[in-house]
Amino acid sequence: MKKRTSVILVLISLVVMSVAYYLFRFVVRDRSMEANALAVLFSLMGVLVLFIAYKELLRRFGKGSVVKEDYAVLFGLEKQKITGEVEFYFTMNQPKHILFTILDQEMKPLQTVTDQDYQSGGHILRFNTESLTDGIYFYCLQSENQKTMKRMFIQHDKMTV
Hints:
There is one protein chain. A hairpin with a 2-residue loop joins strand 7 (135-143) and strand 8. The chain is elongated, with a radius of gyration of 28 Å. The chain is of the alpha+beta class. Helix 1 packs antiparallel against helix 2. The chain has two helices and eight strands. The strands form two sheets. A five-stranded mixed beta sheet has the order 2-8-7-4-5, with no helix packed on it. It folds into two domains: 3-62, no CATH class; 69-154, Immunoglobulin-like, CATH 2.60.40.
């Protein structure tokens, strides 16, 4: 468990314990030693239940968690505005068949950059944007088990004389 998560859990537990203690003392309206001990006992039981519920949630959410090694990582572009040739970079830990496409704003495929098998490691795909008009486009990496999209803005520099 991460240190930050542990600290948050302890703080929540202390708040729950304090609230339970004061509510129990308020309901009982008895200031005796037995009432205080019972209030502390109920408060600690509340904290224990909270802790068990938290652990159970972590266990359930952990089942079927994503294994990052099974997926390709598509990196964003360095430039804000793209003109001319652009390089798309992706990495993966296992060989995969990759379909890489350029999409318009309505998410309709415009061009296929590549549709082939790649070995594990890093890969650079080059694409010339001259065939596209200025505007917002998406580039999409797709394999058997994932589909990843990122946005790019194409703006061709047209200088007038």
